[in-house]
Amino acid sequence: MRPERRKGQRTRSKLFEVFAEAGDLLIVPRSPEELFEPILDLVEAAIEPERAILLLTDCEGCEPQIKASRLRDGSGRGDLTLSQSMVKRVLTEKTSFCWKTAAETTA
Question: Is 48 left (phi over 0), alpha (psi -120 to 50) or beta?
Answer without folding.
Answer: left
